[in-house]
Specification:
homodimer, alpha/beta, Beta-carbonic Anhydrase, Chain A, 5-stranded mixed sheet, two-stranded antiparallel ribbon, 7 strands, carbonate dehydratase activity (chains A, B), metal-binding (chains A, B), lyase (chains A, B)
Chain lengths: ~190, ~190
């Protein structure tokens, strides 16, 4: 079965037993938001105990406090009433295995999928590539605790984020499923 | 119990029964990615039938093909080998209830949470506000089928996205839990 048909069949089964979930309100019932990574191993609903309707979940490569993540968080607070936020990066993140220079070089050579060896990513195919990658900041990570701390600090300092909103910093351990506090981030993220 | 303690208690229970999930590989096992909205009512793992390790999930306000979502999708394909993508917006999305002008006006008046009345959002508190909101494109939505079609087209046309990657366009119905195809988006998103 194709991926598309698998997804549609799974959706059919979910919708068949949807019940009272169709009456949920738009604003998050538990009043918080999580910013985390797109990584396939992470299921924020499961690792943080969310039911449908509970909380906003924002995800991108790395779980970074990009301009777009901040756009989403500001909408979450200003229009939909969340009052606390989590920034959750994770161990063994793909964003640790390359730099802006590496991905720009790889994409200039070929758009096709690279392989990952002991020395990092390398291209197995050839062209066509694109020089466009140099106009993008890829938001790579060299140290998870540092990236969480930086992202919490960036969010707290943003002119559209009100003073006093707590922002908690955690790392999700993909081997154990546990959330590990990043003390430097949590200190910076505390309500004023 | 505070939100933070609730999340940590739920995580403790999840980790206690983590089992073989600790051995999952970094690249998505089922080779696809979903771009969807941060809305609390949406659980992509449930509505699309994902287990941990299966697929990348990218989420922002509206599920829009922002520059940051494209950063994430390019990493997903180039470095982590996904081969098919979904763009899934949804009915009753908060992004339909305001415009750039509205949110800029609200944030200039006050950063605090607004209320939603029959005529749209309005401020209940006062100051401090910020004029910074005018530097952000809020990516609001006036028509879901149109926003899905535009976003699929933007992704397909991006210079860092290889020709031939299928991008499927759907709307998730929050009342029924069903995925509804957007034919104009799917046609534009077909593999070359």
């Amino acid at each position: 079965m194709s991926v598309l048909n698998e997804v549609l069949a799974a959706n059919e089964a979910y919708a068949a037993d949807f019940g009272a979930k169709g009456e949920l309100a738009l604003p998050p019932a538990r009043g918080f938001a999580i910013l985390t990574c797109m990584d396939a191993r992470l299921d924020p609903a499961k690792y943080a105990g969310l039911s449908e309707g509970d909380a906003h979940v924002i995800r991108n490569a790395g779980g970074r406090a990009s301009d777009d993540a901040i756009r989403s968080l500001v909408i979450s607070y200003k229009l939909l009433g969340t009052k606390e936020w989590f920034v959750i990066h994770h161990s063994n993140c793909g964003m640790e295995f390359f730099t802006d220079e590496v991905i720009r070089g790889l994409l200039a050579n070929s758009l096709e999928t690279a392989a990952l060896g002991v020395e990092g990513f390398y291209d197995v195919g050839t062209g066509p590539g694109s020089a466009e990658a140099k106009y993008i900041d890829w938001l790579t990570i060299s140290d998870q605790a540092q990236s969480v701390t930086e992202d919490v600090a960036r969010i707290k300092a943003h002119p559209l984020v009100p003073a006093g909103i707590p922002v908690y910093g955690y790392i999700y351990d993909v081997v154990t499923g546990r959330l590990i506090e990043v003390p430097t981030a949590t200190a910076a993220g505390k309500a004023a």
